[in-house]
Amino acid sequence: MAVHEHPHRGTGLRLPSFRGHRGDAASGSAVSERTGTLTARALALGSTRLLMGFVFLWAFLDKTFGFGYATPSGKGWIDGGSPTQGFLGSVAVGPMESTFHEWAGDTWADWLFMLGLLGIGLALTAGVALRFAALAGTVMMALMWIAEWPPAKHLSDGSPSMSTNPFADYHLVYAAVLIVLAAFAAGDALGLGRLWARLPFVRDHRWLR
């Protein structure tokens, strides 16, 4: 939503100075243009932040309750299923293949993964602690990128990996978006970022911003 400023038109009998009014109009137009750009950018960042928040929150909810999307009904975390068993257990390529197999289904891995999804999702949705969310989200996305290992053309058994790009996949895109949201204080629009920044412990520890 752009905020426009218009030059005032005098209604008195004094003749206007056209040169002055042209200068004022140009100045007002520039201010209006700058304000509109900043507002549009803030709204775009805020909207992107909310969408990313939903991505993480939905992943948490689906894996917890088994809504039948990525997690089948009855296989949710509350039903005794493991949020990491399916993904990490099926890793079939990359330098950490055996390590991910060892981690798959471990209690600590399940809790760390789920708390990460929930924490990042809530931070993005509320617009608070975006720097910490960006750091945690980037680490998570990096691990998932390694698990899928896009550079490989073939899996460990020799079958095609079906990788469509040797480097850039959606995990890297998500990580880049998280970093941009934190760098530009995307929580200030459509979020609680400004209120969060005023809290004493946040002012004393800028990394919580």
Please explain how this structure is put together:
- The protein is mainly alpha-helical and 209 residues long.
- The longest helix is centred in the N-terminal third of the chain and has 48 residues, at 18-65.
- Helix 1 crosses helix 6 (170-183) and helix 5 runs antiparallel to helix 6 (170-183).
- Mean pLDDT is 86; it is low at 1-36.
- The chain is built from eight helices and no strands.
Report low-confidence residues grouped into runs of 5 or more: 1-36
What is the overall silhouette?
globular
Strand content: under 5%
Largest sheet features: none
Rg, alpha carbons: 25 Å
User: Helical amount among residues, as a percent range?
Assistant: 55-70%
* Cα-to-Cα separation, first versus last residue: 25 Å
Give me the number of helical elements: 8
The ordered string of helix (H) and strand (E) elements is: HHHHHHHH
Number of strands: 0
Query: What is the mean predicted local confidence, pLDDT?
Result: 86
List keywords for this structure.
209 residues, mainly alpha, 8 helices, 59% helix
Topology summary:
Layout: H1 18-65, H2 85-89, H3 97-103, H4 107-126, H5 130-148, H6 170-183, H7 193-198, H8 200-204
Helix pairs in contact: 1-4, 1-6, 4-5, 5-6
Summed up, what is this model?
This protein is mainly α and 209 residues long. It is 59% helix and 0% strand. The longest helix has 48 residues.
